[in-house]
Structures are given as structure tokens and as C-alpha cells.
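User: For my dataset I need records formatted as: sequence, then C-alpha cells, nothing else. Please produce one.
Assistant:
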Amino acid sequence: MDEQIGIVTRGINNIYAVVPLDDVSRLASARTFSCRIKGKVLQDVDDVYNPLAVGDQVLFNVHQGDEGMILRRLERRNSFERWNAKRGTNQTLVANMDLAICVTSTDDPPFRPRFIDRAIVCAHDMPLMIVLNKCDLMLTEDQNERFQLYASLGYDTFAMSAFDTKGIEALHALLRGKTVAMIGQSGVGKSTLVNALLGGPDVQKTGDISNKFHRGRHTTNHALMLPADGFNIVDTPGMRELLIPHEDPHLIAETFPEFRKYADRCSYQPCLHDHEPGCAVKEQVEAGLIHPDRYESYLRMIASVEDRPESWESDRR
């Protein structure tokens, strides 16, 4: 049996759809193999919720028709991970993406910048774009200031409506040649946006907003890679909360670009920029040079790591 390299395009109940690497650029017509992990345990992968995620490159062989066995996961160049509180371990949503798009909305559900802050931390070495959907609904002055802040920090931002043809065409042009993952809260219009980019209303199911909880109902229950015109797109399940991966809290500060130019001036090294005296980052917050809500968002994140497993913070607090 010949071994070959493939990419996971879907995974449900330990059965993975795998497309040969050379065929991923023509995903719509590619032959897809239904694969299981050989021996049921993936070697050299420990302490994770899911050993494989959409976008992972794997070594596999075909043993019968369109069925195969996954032998090994190849090294990831990046991943988007979150903390799975129920299992008490990290969960990978997607891997090896050229771009992650964090979709947010102006209202219904409301704009939540702390969700975006956490998404940035969860994107390990993965470029991230922030897309503001439903921009026909106005942001408040404070919300707009917070959204504009991301652009000033160097993040790509894009404001649009999923029902605006020109906006869809402009976003489509930015994504050409890439494999991108769509990530966002339930109800922000993520699947509607995916459908618009794919050119049809019925590719991914969409749902109404829950009036009781002012949140979206889940309509995508697993990650799935789909072929678009000139790029591939991964739709992921909508999230009501996003907990950052369990790791060294000192690493969180490195994802805040506004901290970096001051961090080496702190009296204590390494500094968590929390209770330490002589912290240059805190001094810049007090001087108004670092946004106070971004700093508060950071403090909640490091608290969520330090408090596990007894308690944790979520973006809904």
C-alpha cells in the first residue's frame, strides 16, 4: 500500500475526510478518502481534545476503495486552538491556514471586542483578519473606537454586510489563492457570509438569533473545508464563548503588540504586567497610551489561565 500526503477537510466521530495534497487546489472535483486513525491512537499526539483538525496534513494509505488509514500527522505551521472546559484540555479548530477571519457584528449579537482579543490569542502563528459584518447597523462611538484600534495595531480589518455585493466581491478578491478559516460567535452571520462567498444561499445552513439569550443558534456543528472560486474556505461552528488555550500566561502578553515596545523596560523580567511594581506597560495604560479596555481584556485572560481548573473567565463576562 502506497503512502501519500493528504489534507483533512472534515472530521466527524473519528472518521476523517482526506484529500490528496496535490488535489486540494481543485477541491470541488478532488477524490476524497474516508479515513480512520490506524490503531485509533495517533502517535506522538498527547493531551489534546482532538488529535486531528481540518487543515492538518497527514500521512495516509488507501486500503480499500475510497477508504484509508491515517498513519501520522505532519508538523503544523500554525493552528487555532481554544480551551475546552468540559474536557479540561486544548481543542484545535483548524490548522495550517493562510488566514483566519474573525467575524463579528455590530449588533444582534452585539459587538464584543473581548471575543476578538481572545481570538487573536488563540491563533497560534496564524494571520488574522477582523471582519465586521452587519455594518449597516451603526456602532456606538466607543465600539467604533475599539474596532478602529485593531487597524492601528496592525491587524487587517474589513467592514461589510453579507448582503452587499460589492463588499462580497472586495473580500473575495482579498482571499484569492488562500485557504481561510471563518471563526466567530453564533449569530454574527458567519455562515451567511460563507454562503455569499461561495455564490449560493444554501451551502451552509443559517439560523435566526435567539431572542432569549441575544445570541445565535448553532447552525454549523463541525468544521468543514469548502471550495470557492479561487480559494478554499473552512466554516467552523459558531461559539458562544471562547476560552484561551491553557499555557504559560507570560505568552499571552506577546500577542498584544502595544505591550511589546514597553515590556523590556519593566523592572521585573519576565513581567506579567499585573501586580508587579515598576511595570512599564501599566505606566503606559495610566498615561493613556495603551487602551484601558484592551488591558482589562488582557488581565482577564491571564486570570483565566492562573485560575484553572477551579474557575475561568469567559468573553461573556
